[in-house]
Write a structure and sequence with these properties.
4-stranded antiparallel β-sheet, 44% helix
Length: 129
């Protein structure tokens, strides 16, 4: 009789090998995701800071609300980063007045990012762990 297919033992060995490979690979993939989120958060903060600095050059002061960056014509930001979550981070304008600003990017959860970042007047980026 011609048997085609796999035996139960062969299938169990394949499943075990896949399980071992996933155990080895999964932490690296998760670390890569966290690193990518953190890099994206820093880049987004620099983008927001550039928009604030450009607004300041054009008007003489920083905006007092983040919506001013979105509603200007043409807009200084094309996406509202201050509502919802972007790449695992939540963005908050902690200080926003005509003369100073401070924008914070905090991870939504510990598995999406490890550090909280702040960018302030003059595009000064700081990290708080």
């Amino acid at each position: 009789m011609d048997k085609r297919g796999l035996t139960l033992v062969e299938i169990m060995v394949v499943v075990m090998v896949i399980g071992v490979l996933m155990t080895i690979a999964l932490p690296g993939v998760l670390r890569a995701r966290v690193t990518a989120n953190e890099t994206a958060a820093q880049a987004t903060l620099k983008l927001i800071s550039n928009a604030l600095e450009t607004y300041s050059v054009a008007t003489g002061t920083y905006p007092v609300t983040t919506t001013a960056l979105l509603t200007a014509s043409p807009p200084y930001l094309t996406k509202d980063y201050f509502t919802g979550v972007d790449n695992g981070y939540v963005y908050t304008a902690t200080t926003l007045s005509g003369y100073v600003y401070s924008i914070e990017a905090a991870p939504q959860s510990a598995n999406l990012g490890r550090s909280t970042y702040t960018i302030s007047t003059g595009s000064v980026l700081a990290t708080a762990n």
